[in-house]
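User: Can you write out an input/output pair for a complex, sequences first and structure second?

Assistant: Here is one pair. Inputs:
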Amino acid sequence: MHKIALNFEDGVTRFIDATADETVADAAYRQGINIPLDCRDGACGTCKCFAEAGRYDLGQEYIEDALSEEEAEQGYVLTCQMRAQSDCVVRIPASSQVCKTEQSSYQASISAVRQLSDSTIALSIKGEALSRLAFLPGQYVNLGVPGSEQTRAYSFSSLQKDGEVSFLIRNVPGGLMSSFLTGLAKAGDSMTLAGPLGSFYLREIRRPLLLLAGGTGLAPFTAMLEKIAEEGSEHPLHLIYGVTNDFDLVELDRLQSFAERIANFSFSACVANPESQHPLKGYVTQHIEPCHLNEGDVDVYLCGPPPMVEAVSQYIREQGITPANFYYEKFAAAAA
Ligand SMILES: Cc1cc2nc3c(=O)[nH]c(=O)nc-3n(C[C@H](O)[C@H](O)[C@H](O)COP(=O)(O)OP(=O)(O)OC[C@H]3O[C@@H](n4cnc5c(N)ncnc54)[C@H](O)[C@@H]3O)c2cc1C
Ligand code: FES
């Protein structure tokens, strides 16, 4: 049995189980998810999707009009013909609503809430329901703010282990979630989560990776690194983690422990404030070296507050280098 992540156009992800004998479309329908489908015969192309990761058999029965050789080489599949040979990630060109599914909700309670520094909070939540929560490292959930009807988006900063997941949260003075977490929150408090969501997740590592984090934009990378620590990587991975002030720098021990556990992983951390006591000063872009961009044969992952994501994207464009893949996540404020 393989796990297939179906990523819908609206950012919702649902996981289904598929045996090696059934098509991905049959597995989805068996589990109540109506992905686009018409002839079921490999003739119409209605079920064409993009396989982001995994090994699979495309089938022999479809016609060129439905899926061309070139499309198959690029990673397109017909889900009415595709049979999984490993866990896979499939992008569905339709919204979750059209496919008669929606994001899942979970109830859990706070297992730990800790102020790592004046600006940063570590939150862990735990619950039996969460042991069924599957997500791709790098994705996020909407967390309900207790005592209000509002939700805030947070990237998982860890994998799910024994029904527990963690987050790394910036303390925005006067912010709704920030005020709850720094004032009222205590172990045992209930929280609701809805998700997982998002297209910022770790793809198969096929070339060197450059990971660029701004502030708590580090969160999705620590989840990705947990996964990479389990599976290893043949390719070099370099993380540059930039913050504004010395007190924003957190989780350095954890990054160091990843560097010890993952053979090809290295990182640097820099602080923008010129008065910083940290040895490496400046912005993330000042510490990108030509070898990190590898003449474009690199997958870049970038996450942080919107101005940082825009500045770094522009810097990379100005270098005249087009990375093989460029994925980013902006931590946009809900209340902006
Ligand atoms: C996909 C996604 C993933 C995210 N993941 C994370 C994460 O892992 N960690 C994390 O810390 N945040 C993350 N965020 C941001 C997060 O969702 C909240 O916006 C943030 O935590 C502020 O929430 P709040 O309730 O404390 O403040 P709010 O009540 O939403 O805001 C209060 C005031 O502060 C302003 N404000 C909000 N955020 C900022 C900011 N960053 N800088 C300056 N002013 C701000 C607002 O405009 C508003 O005026 C993510 C956002 C998105 C869209
Ligand atoms: S449904 Fe027609 S090709 Fe798959």
